[in-house]
């Protein structure tokens, strides 16, 4: 099976500009391609993870990836897929986020000996002369056509700022610069980037008379059509300090039955034959498939040791075992207790990160969704003695899937 055939079989490919040409280059390791990453936070998240996996697959086949960090475009903000304008960030925040991205990307992509490049578009965007840009680049863009782009259409009713309207031109200019500087002949990205990517291929054709290509990858959506990688408490991050390896493992362990095989194809490097076999599994076997998915992805992001710890911790909890060593845990301090050395259950839930507010904690208890060491607690005034939290502490659980070991030294 060729690289291209595998990408198609895994369901990764959404739209392409010239399939025959892209297929030929990718299969023969001739593609120098880029994917852009705007530094909107201090960690990459699950959405980025899918793009990194694609880069890794193509690099393994001899192609050269360019990770383009958006030090310039991050000053504007991409309107694609958003209902409101992004919060403006300072240059210092953007640089800090870029530094965080660099460390995380190096876990996936081999940047040694020119096998891949990491480039910052601030190098050319921040010093542009506005009038020169209007004359050299703006003349090649039709406002009528830009307004038909999906990324703009969905914002027209709520209001699209002129700042954001320029984003397509900046992203197109990136492709144009990368083509000239590094021979970058392809751009890959999420399917919501299609209009922006076409803008780049068109600019290269008009300015240089050359062909460049674009391909979008399937967005990571669940069976209900919603973006995956989001939880009630926010995004699923690749930074272990923002989403612990255990919580990362649990996110994938708890995906819907309808999504597990799709995630396996899109995100893991397991052979397709093995995944196809798992696609025939039913009932309790699907839980085994989810365990495999969670382990594989945690291993990719956090390494084998953390993946094993997360797996052992989850198994211990769900089997009723006593081994809580690898569970997420919260250490309470003396200040957390009242004068009579007790702590109320709602405060414990908040400290453990199982609820965001006291009202939600109260509701969870009243609905019978909270337990301590397997014993359901329905009294919202329930308190726990400090002595009972010494040593291994207790396992505090909310619902079927959220739990935390709470202890005091």
UniProtKB/TrEMBL annotation:
The keyword ATP-binding applies. It is found in: Cytoplasm. Keywords: Aminoacyl-tRNA synthetase, ATP-binding, Cytoplasm, Ligase, Nucleotide-binding, Protein biosynthesis, RNA-binding. GO terms for molecular function: ATP binding; protein homodimerization activity; RNA binding; tyrosine-tRNA ligase activity. It comes from the Bacteria. GO terms for biological process: tyrosyl-tRNA aminoacylation. GO terms for cellular component: cytosol. ATP binds at residue 230. SMART domains: S4. Its main location: cytoplasm. It is an enzyme of class 6 (ligase). L-tyrosine binds at residues 34, 167, 171. Signal peptide: none annotated. A motif ('KMSKS' region) lies at residues 227-231. Its EC number is 6.1.1.1. HAMAP family: Tyr_tRNA_synth_type1 (MF_02006). Belongs to the class-I aminoacyl-tRNA synthetase family. TyrS type 1 subfamily. Catalyzes the attachment of tyrosine to tRNA(Tyr) in a two-step reaction: tyrosine is first activated by ATP to form Tyr-AMP and then transferred to the acceptor end of tRNA(Tyr). Homodimer. PANTHER family: TYROSINE--TRNA LIGASE, MITOCHONDRIAL (PTHR11766:SF0), TYROSYL-TRNA SYNTHETASE (PTHR11766). This is Tyrosine--tRNA ligase. It comes from Blautia obeum. The gene is tyrS.
